[in-house]
């Protein structure tokens, strides 16, 4: 009994799985840390974003699909719930990246 047909089948299966699999590039998201000794700024004009598994809210109301109108030039604080995975956070940060002059702080 020859092993050549078995090796051929294994090679074809290996080739098939290599060509049909998808490769994702993992990247990093740059986050700027706040200053340690800076004085606290007043809370007026500060928007509160809350991200949960059900979605994002802005000051208690659902976040609009285009947040640029509501958050243009604003200062905002983003808080995430314990049930939020990192991909959901990255998706929201990508949406918020389109808002001009947004100052965003992500809470732990």
Automatic annotation (TrEMBL):
Q: Which UniProt keywords apply?
A: Cell membrane, Membrane, Protein transport, Transmembrane, Transmembrane helix, Transport
Q: Which GO terms describe its biological process?
A: protein transport
Signal peptide annotation:
none
For this record, the Gene Ontology CC terms, alphabetical, are: plasma membrane
Membrane topology annotation: Single-pass membrane protein; Single-pass type II membrane protein
GO MF annotation: an example: transmembrane transporter activity
Cell location: Cell membrane
Similarity comment: Belongs to the ExbD/TolR family.
Put simply, this protein is called Outer membrane transport energization protein ExbD
Q: Please spell out the taxonomic lineage of the organism that makes this protein.
A: Bacteria, Pseudomonadati, Pseudomonadota, Alphaproteobacteria, Rhodobacterales
């Amino acid at each position: 009994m020859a092993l050549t047909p078995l090796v051929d089948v294994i090679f074809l299966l290996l080739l098939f799985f290599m060509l049909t699999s998808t490769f994702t590039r993992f990247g990093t998201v740059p986050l700027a840390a706040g200053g340690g000794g800076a004085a606290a700024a007043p809370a007026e004009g500060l928007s509160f974003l809350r991200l949960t598994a059900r979605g994002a809210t802005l000051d208690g109301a659902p976040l609009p699909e285009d947040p640029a109108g509501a958050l243009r030039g604003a200062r905002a604080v983003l808080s995430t719930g314990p049930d939020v995975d990192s991909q959901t956070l990255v998706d929201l940060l990508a949406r918020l990246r389109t808002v001009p002059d947004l100052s965003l702080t992500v809470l732990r």
